[in-house]
Input
Amino acid sequence: MTVLDKLRLNGRVAIVTGAGRGLGRAMAVALAEAGADIVATARTESQIEETAGLVRETGRRCLAVRCDVTDSESGKAMVDRAFGEFGRIDILVNNAGGATDGFGNSLEAITDEQWRVGIATNLTGAMYCSRAVIPHMLERGSGKIINVTSGFGLRAGRNNFIYTSAKAGLINFTRSLTMTYAPAIQANLIAPGLFPHGDPAIEEWWKHGMFVPMGRLGRDEELGPLCIFLASDLTSYMNGQVIVLDGGGLAGGELPTGFAPVVELPGA
Amino acid sequence: MTLEQFSLAGKVAVVIGAANPLGRAAAVSLAEAGADVGVATTTRSQREEVAANSCANEIWALDRKGFAQAIDAADERDVDSLVERAISELGRLDILANALDLHFAKPALDISLAEWRRVIDANLTGVFLACRAAGREMLRRESGRVVNLSSVLAERGMANGSAYCAAQAGVLNLTRALALEWARSGVTVNAVGAGWIDAGGFLADENMKRQLERYLPYKRLAEPEEISGAVVYLASDAAAYLTGQVVWIEGGALSHV
Output
């Protein structure tokens, strides 16, 4: 078996949360292209049906399940339905999340409810889904969990309290999964940089990535191969790690896109 | 089709450190993914030359082109001529993988300046020289992938490991700085942070090996082939937007308190 054969996911079943659009949709379709059957879940029925259509075009099966991951019962019911339909769950991609009401609020302006919803959306939902899926994975002795964090899980932002706290929490939650369930389960994270999901207004707001070292923004489909890599047997010894896909953004920080002036050694 | 982005068919790679199990596995995995691969030693020793030749044989057995060259990776003329040979014999240079890994442990007070310099040269300076040599060609063509293999000891300290830990940490930050410098030139620079493998050196000591195996969440060391898949991913079109990062494959070693 060559290194490329090990990327194939034929016969495996992947749940992707937040699969109705953007990165979640791109990852669901990529996993299907690699051979996995997909459970596409999100809150908006029409969007997951559209994703399911794209998955089925690759020749794989897809179950579209409406689910609000911030609701423990809804998450559990989704996992039960997935298991009932396919009889196994090999891969869980906890992708649901994003900016919630109060994003960018100053600390004094954050309401209790905004904090609760933001943490629930970006951290607790991943815990609920993991908690529901892991018994199925342990029963078969193998599983892959891929949690989607953010550059803001690793670095802070001014008046970015809710999102950074949740995404940083998700990283250490994942490391604890590693310490608890390795080697049977591999739990890793993806930290995407700036992905405008094809929205021209956001592309404009982010200045088309001129301040990203590579000089451009990310494209949703670029998450696909990374997701396959982390879901595959190529990463059976990778556990508890964050892979940052950001065109070099987090590699620097002091002079993000600038070059230091040439400085010769003294006496040269 | 997303999976096709991982193929390296038509690409040419150079791997330095073919006598190191990680370097050997990287070279073979790159060839399995379709690349032609020239491999090199890190020192001019008979042991390394034999290992590099055997690695080249594995590449030929996969029906890929390749060669083995004996070099001192800390000698700039040797490294430059290695890159020239890849371009002249294999036609181009797309991928550079560096697997420099000279183990050395001693109390800091007992380390001579000559020993310190040799450890820094063998683990870090050679990586810089190879990046510089390959970078000339990659920047000219505005396309290339550099993957530097490093160790969990780049991120965590170890008593008696000052020289090795400093050199390996140097590889990671060299990687980040070059990634930024070349980000707009079509060249990505990343590192693979390797977990503990059974490669002699520090682990020639059975007691240390047993302690580590107990400590690691996997309760075992890594096989080199469990790490080399990351080299293929980073070397491929699948990782076009990924630069300046360390991809760790270390069995949870760094998640530990």
Observations:
- Chain B is about 45% helix and 15% strand.
- The longest strand of chain B covers residues 144-151.
- Chain B has one domain: 2-249.
